[in-house]
Design goal:
20 helices; TIM Barrel; globular; binds iron/sulfur cluster; 9 strands; alpha/beta; binds S-adenosylmethionine; about 475 residues
């Protein structure tokens, strides 16, 4: 059994990010003809994953009218394939000790200003109780990279989360954002029943990567780049990729995310379950102003382009972004957002004035889960806490939503309604409950009469009568 951090071993590994080719595509596709851009958008709407040349063309479409057409294409794709459902989750920071020195991160080893903290099991239980009592069902556990956060520890914390039950609620899906393991380590973590394993490459530009990660196991570019390959080899087939936008040119990073996608498709016959695009935020004891950054407009462009380029994958947008920007970008095809997040270690159950000193960076969306849900309903979205696919072994659900005609109507929307109704019954404020019931009514009205609808209405009554955790 593996104890402590795995041995970094990159023998025989090569990069699958062809830097020169990426720069060449970005150069060759400059000033694209509008017709070409429209053809590419159409190819995406016809449910094709785009090629690097096509993505580069979209990136080079800078005329504001063409950019508007790209935004519109992404909105249409989202509506056609995924409908108006938004899955909600919360991050839970387990510990902020770290042996790395990522220059952008408040948790880096040489940062003396951050307060170090690792949750004990009783403290973890308190955090879970606080989250469950707010109505959360899906979490992502986040860890620094440190020998104490080895595969066994991650496994044990996941088990602990699943073991908690409070009132009518419990956490039903635990995803992980932690350092890359070796295959043995990933196997152990899989045994705990995790959902997605997420690793962000931060920057796919190797020289920038080396500069940003001067020491610790994370300084090895290839070990991290191949991390999700090892997860797949260990049988974890829901993996999440991402880049920390703002370290290097967003155009390059967006292209590289596509190359990573293609690599996973080619090697494992399945692309990433999710793509994340966190942007650098201010962090305690950290000079984040020195990074190139990405402005809001380009950030919107990159999300829309990713939506079009990889139409089968879930896109995640976090509370790093402001409320206004989140409301805008949700329409472009984001399928999951966090809500009511607190990233101070231990802060869900013991928030105090010092909590920010235990945080990795600063969040820009401080709304409560209840408020986010109300506003989603008012904007015509249906919030979802569904974990049905994962529980029934239907891994790769985004792919099914995308590839199986009628999948969203048969499974996703009914499960969104049932899980959202649980939230309304057990946790919602009166205003949110009222907005939520109106939204559920709208969803039901939009559904044609069918056996499926009759079954759903039956289950709605069951939830109202106290049954929980019903799904199709
Ligand atoms: N320690 C593990 C690692 O680095 O992979 C796992 C979690 S790390 C705490 C989660 C992610 O936070 C990192 O992958 C990075 O993309 C992001 N991050 C770090 N510093 C940030 C900052 N200043 N602003 C926004 N995101 C940041
Ligand atoms: Fe540690 Fe992760 Fe922060 Fe890097 S990003 S310093 S590995 S917690």
């Amino acid at each position: 059994m593996s104890i402590g951090l795995p041995k970094v071993d990159t023998e025989g590994l090569k990069s699958f990010i062809p830097e020169t080719e990426i720069f060449e595509w970005l150069e060759k596709t400059k000033n694209p003809a509008p017709e070409r851009v429209r053809k590419i958008i159409q190819r995406s709407l016809d449910k094709n994953r785009l090629d690097p040349e096509e993505m580069a063309t979209l990136i080079n479409a800078e005329d504001p009218e063409l950019v508007e057409e790209i935004f519109e294409g992404a909105r249409t794709l989202k509506e056609r394939i995924y409908g108006n459902r938004i899955v909600l989750f919360a991050p839970l920071y387990i510990g902020n000790d770290c042996v790395n020195n990522c220059k952008y991160c408040g948790f880096r080893a040489n940062n003396r200003e951050v307060h170090r903290k690792t949750l004990t099991m009783p403290e973890l239980d308190n955090e879970i109780e606080a989250l469950v009592n707010k109505g959360h069902k899906r979490l992502i556990l986040v860890y620094g990279e440190h020998p104490q956060y080895d595969a066994q520890f991650i496994h044990d914390t996941v088990k602990e989360v699943y073991a908690q039950k409070h009132g009518n609620g419990e956490i039903r899906r635990v995803n992980i954002n932690a350092a890359p393991m070796d295959v043995e380590g990933f196997k152990l973590i899989k045994e705990a029943g995790i959902g997605t394993y997420q690793i962000f490459q931060e920057t796919y530009h190797e020289a920038t990567y080396r500069d940003q990660h001067p020491s610790g196991p994370k300084s090895n570019f290839l070990w991290r780049l191949h991390g999700l390959d090892r997860a797949q080899e260990a049988g974890i087939d829901d993996v999440g990729i991402g880049a920390l936008m703002g370290l290097f040119d967003w155009r390059f990073e967006t292209m590289a995310l596509l190359y990573h996608t293609i690599h996973l498709e080619e090697r494992f016959k399945v692309g990433p379950h999710t793509i994340s695009f966190p942007r650098i935020e201010p962090a305690i004891g950290t000079d984040t102003a020195k990074f190139p950054g990405v402005n809001d407009y380009d950030f919107k462009r990159l999300v829309a382009i990713l939506r079009l380029a990889v139409p089968y994958t879930g896109l995640i947008l976090t509370c790093r972004e402001s409320v206004e920007l989140r409301n805008d970008i949700i329409k472009f095809g984001v399928s999951q957002i966090d809500a009511g997040s607190d990233i101070g270690v231990g802060a869900y159950s013991t928030r105090d004035e010092e909590s920010y000193k235990k945080s990795q960076f600063v969040l820009n969306d401080g709304r409560s889960l209840d408020q986010v849900i109300r506003e989603l309903c008012e904007a015509g979205f249906i919030p979802s806490f569904c974990t049905g696919c994962y529980r029934l072994g239907r891994t790769g659900e985004h792919f099914m939503e995308f590839a199986v005609p009628g999948f969203v109507k048969r499974f996703c929307t009914p499960n969104a309604i049932l899980t959202f109704l649980e939230y309304i019954e057990d946790y919602a404020s009166p205003e949110t409950a009222a907005a939520g019931l109106v939204q559920i009514e709208r969803e039901l009205e939009a559904m044609p009469e069918s056996d499926q609808k009759a079954k759903l209405i039956e289950r709605i009554e069951q939830v109202k009568n106290g049954d929980r955790d019903l799904y199709f």
